[in-house]
Amino acid sequence: MLVVVILVGLLYALPNLYGEDPAVQITGARGSAASEQTLDQIQSALKQDNIQSKSVALENGAITARFNNTDVQLRAREAIMKALGENYVVALNLAPATPRWLSMLSAEPMKLGLDLRGGVHFLMEVDMDTALGKLQEQNADSLRSDLRTKSIPYTTVNKIANYGVEIRFRDAASRDAAISWLTSRHQDLVINSSGSDALRATMSDARLSEAREYAVQQNITILRNRVNQLGVAEPLVQRQGSDRIVVELPVFRIRHALKRFWVQRRRWNSVW
């Protein structure tokens, strides 16, 4: 058993020996995704500029092109940007060089934390008050629309505490007809009479919990999409607690970043 455990451990530690390839990551701008047509454009652009790539693959709506060194990587980025224009985000990246047979076994290199690779750490809090306030406005508009559809006259629609809505009517008969009509159409609202000529509609506990969950998940999705467009290696975007999101962005190796800087500086000097 000890021998088997050691062999399995060595097998899943192998990806760490292969290092990373300089890569260019291409993703669609404004929510669009890369396609097979985009892949053909990239391959044509690289071939036209005599740029050799290790591989160009389309996966999960993004294209990753791998190269042998950073000089070829920089040339490839310029050629791809020129071919695709502003419809795509073309970012430099470092892609794991794990062989395919190891990837098929779900063997991936160990992700280095910020203490080993360096980077930035953000802790963000979702503005629940704004999110629930917008939902409150949507509920008010929906209630108005339903009353107009049924031709039930009302006088005012006001926001109240706990993200509720109060509607006043000309008389109690109109109020009772509105309660009967709206209750069947809004299962996620608790609708009760208030005073002699008004009703109050408040969101149920289940609806409030669902709205809070949706607000957090929506922000996580947006952050992940924007981080992926940056081409940052090994990003971390995850939830912390009920309304907070942790974002950790490791940086590239210092040598890789400095090389990009000096290459760009030489080009500026040649222009001047």
TrEMBL record:
<keyword id="KW-1003">Cell membrane</keyword>
<dbReference type="InterPro" id="IPR027398">
    <property type="entry name" value="SecD-TM"/>
</dbReference>
<dbReference type="InterPro" id="IPR022646">
    <property type="entry name" value="SecD/SecF_CS"/>
</dbReference>
<keyword id="KW-0653">Protein transport</keyword>
<dbReference type="Pfam" id="PF13721">
    <property type="entry name" value="SecD-TM1"/>
</dbReference>
<feature type="domain" description="Protein translocase subunit SecDF P1">
    <location>
        <begin position="216"/>
        <end position="250"/>
    </location>
</feature>
<keyword id="KW-1133">Transmembrane helix</keyword>
<feature type="domain" description="SecD export protein N-terminal TM">
    <location>
        <begin position="1"/>
        <end position="92"/>
    </location>
</feature>
<keyword id="KW-0811">Translocation</keyword>
<dbReference type="InterPro" id="IPR048631">
    <property type="entry name" value="SecD_1st"/>
</dbReference>
<dbReference type="InterPro" id="IPR022813">
    <property type="entry name" value="SecD/SecF_arch_bac"/>
</dbReference>
<dbReference type="Pfam" id="PF07549">
    <property type="entry name" value="Sec_GG"/>
</dbReference>
<keyword id="KW-0472">Membrane</keyword>
<dbReference type="Pfam" id="PF21760">
    <property type="entry name" value="SecD_1st"/>
</dbReference>
<dbReference type="GO" id="GO:0005886">
    <property type="term" value="C:plasma membrane"/>
</dbReference>
<keyword id="KW-0812">Transmembrane</keyword>
<keyword id="KW-0813">Transport</keyword>
<dbReference type="GO" id="GO:0015031">
    <property type="term" value="P:protein transport"/>
</dbReference>
<protein>
    <submittedName>
        <fullName>Preprotein translocase subunit SecD</fullName>
    </submittedName>
</protein>
